[in-house]
Amino acid sequence: MDRPLLIFSGQSNRPLAQAIAEALGLPLGKSTTLRFANDNLFVRYEESLREGDVFIVQSFVPPVQDHLMELLMMVDAAKGASAARVTAVIPYFSYARSDKKDAPRISITARLIADLLQTAGADRVLTMTLHSPQVHGFFKIPVDHLSAEPVIANYFATRVDLENAVVVAPDAGDLKRASALARRLGLPLAFIDKERVSDTEVRVRMLVGEVEGKTALIVDDEISTAGSLVEAVEALMQAGAKEVYAAATHGVYVGPALDRIAKSPVKEVAATDTCPPKEGPKLRTLTVAPLFAEAIWRIHRGESVSSLFT
Ligand code: R5P
Predict the structure, then answer these.
(1) What percent of the chain has pLDDT over 90?
(2) Are 209 and 268 part of one and the same domain?
(3) Hey, what's the torsion of the CAs at 34, 109, 250, 277, to 10 degrees?
(4) Which residue has the CA at smallest separation from atom 10 of ligand 1?
(5) What distance in angstroms lies between residue 40's CA and the mean position of ligand 1's atoms?
(6) What is the pLDDT of residues 242-278, one digit of tens each?
(7) Marked catalytic residue, from 30, 79, 101, 194
(8) 94-117 pLDDT, tens per residue?
(9) CB 122 within 8 A of CB 86
(10) Do 249 and 206 share a structural domain?
(11) Can you give the pTM of this predicted structure?
């Protein structure tokens, strides 16, 4: 028997879930989330999930803890409603930044969330550009880890004159991703050595590579407070870059981010719709809905997902 493919959305990013469902030619499934007077959440599916191949789309954007809890409850409720298989689709997995014990007496929260999702009953996870790719290994269930690289490469290739451009990794963690993008675009690579001073402040220690007179293309996994971004732009401009563009998979844009970008000499900042898009004269949104739709279709059909990227 062919299991029906069912797509549901939590409350974090319904426009993306809707776009994924549309790309698959399916209606978005109906569900309700309520908050009781005592702050407890309540979720209920408004249609049958029996023997369905269920995909629940939820990004960990603020309020992160509410969205995490809602996803756990939706997974649990789907299993309880006799879904045949439940895939947690987490376009933005914010806690991938809590991936190691780099200070005493702290929680490796990415691993804790992996455990919670499995306890809730998730059979698979589908996600994109984990800040720390090793987080994949915290799960004992299959994880498909998508990359926004083709979408970001296409943005730079169509938006910027690549004749005299250089790809820039704004910190060590982004070096591998930036190097892959530079190879794809046939461009040289530069690298910034950054030090995090606090949650919202960073300091550039060193810029390695030739950027003078060039168009610099910063590529990052996420833009949160935009501290990393504006400091990188500043360092590049001081080193003589002609202009700076930036692209990130996850445009979280919290706290001072939008103000910092508005005041920065950066020409344009692009991010995908893994997080709900924000408005701003320099901001652009790239959609990853077709990529997620294709991955979901392949998972449903039991086809290779990695070959999407080869
Ligand atoms: C950090 O290591 C990441 O790659 C991003 O650069 C960082 O998470 C962005 O955070 P913020 O925008 O707050 O500097």
Answers:
(1) 94
(2) yes
(3) 20
(4) 224
(5) 32
(6) 999 999 999 999 999 999 999 999 999 999 999 999 9
(7) 194
(8) 999 999 998 999 999 999 999 999
(9) yes
(10) yes
(11) 0.96
On whether both 129 and 175 belong to a single domain, the answer is no
Q: C-alpha angle 275/232/107, rounded to 5°?
A: 55
Q: Is 140 a catalytic residue?
A: no
What range defines the domain where residue 71 resides? Answer: 5-147+289-309
Residues 232 and 159 placed together within one structural domain of the fold: yes
121 and 223 in a single domain? The answer is no
For residues 20 and 293, the answer to whether their CB atoms sit within 8 Å is yes
Ligand 1 atom at shortest distance from the alpha carbon of 252: 12
Instruction: Write down the pLDDT at residue 309.
Output: 72
Please tell me whether residues 121 and 166 are part of one structural domain.
no
For 302, which DSSP code? T
Close Cβ partners of 283 (under 8 Å, ≥ 6 residues apart): 251, 258, 261, 268, 269, 270, 271, 277
Q: What is the CATH number of the domain that holds 266?
A: 3.40.50.2020
Asked if residue 246 and residue 213 are part of one domain, the reply reads yes
Number of domains making up the chain: 2
Q: What is the tens place of the pLDDT at every residue in 56-102? A: 999 999 999 999 999 999 999 999 999 999 999 999 999 999 999 98
Q: What is the pLDDT of residues 122-165, one digit of tens each?
A: 999 999 999 999 999 999 999 999 999 999 999 999 999 999 99
Q: Using alpha carbons, list the distances in angstroms from residue 215 to 178, 230, 273.
A: 15, 16, 25
Residue in 156, 137, 164 with CA at minimum distance from that of residue 267: 156
E-state strands within 69-169: 85-90, 124-128, 143-146, 165-169
* Ligand 1 atom closest to Cα of residue 257: 12
H helical segments located in 160-305: 175-185, 227-238, 257-263, 289-301
